[in-house]
Amino acid sequence: MFRGSMVALITPFKNGEVDYEALENLVEWHIAEGTDALVPCGTTGESATLSHAEHKEVVSFVVKKVRGRIPVIAGTGSNSTREAIELAQAAKEVGADAHLSITPYYNKPTQEGLYLHFKAIQDAVALPMILYNVPGRTAVSLSPETMGRLSELPHVIGVKEATGDLKYAAEMMEKVKSGFLLISGDDFTAYALLAMGGVGAISVTANILPKQNHEMFASYFAGDRERAQKIFFEMLPFHRMMFVETNPIPVKAAAYYMGRIPNLEYRLPLCPLSSANEAKLRDFLKSQGLLKIS
To answer: Record's Gene Ontology CC terms (predicted)?
Structure first.
């Protein structure tokens, strides 16, 4: 059910509020382009600056607009276990197919604290849960041993692996139970993780190249690894451009300049690209024939 190109969906804003018309247009475009699952309210969706009410409404809106055509994995993580449970419960109530829960940031819990955090969530909410391990943002990482323990819990079905460390990924997959889903959370290592049993990616670049990202995974799973590898390397310059500054600043700007969202707005503390990187992005999109807003 959860396989292929799963987009870490951006959240469009207009005059400081969520632009639901633009969000609906993104949902329909992704489905038409072959995106395999939508992941609203993750890091790329600026969840950190959404109020809880907005967070719940965005997830509910996406679920309603998708109408069961592809899975919706709701971002629900928090550094407060109680808040993470609240967001997970809300996702379940509106019909999300699974939820994505990040390692608690700032608190810097121990491995036992991390285990107890996720166990408390899955005990409280009977909804498939995908762990999100991204130490570059949270300052903590689930050890392979802790990941193995968590994989035995009934509602923990997989991990969004965003360390970018292939050695770690291999050691983690050595510890988890059979059938545990390995989902890339790092576009640069998405293809490599397939060799370890990966099932796809929760992708930033899929916001602007949904068809290509879908086709890379579809080709791989169909046995055409040569074509999958070719697409991966064709997308590599896009991956680099999407991380010239903190995600989601570049990808949201790219979506705007490609005409996919009508307004380019962030919420502080995120701010627009520097003038040098904005020029670099626009020149890159123009070179690819994708620049629509001059």
So the answer is: cytosol
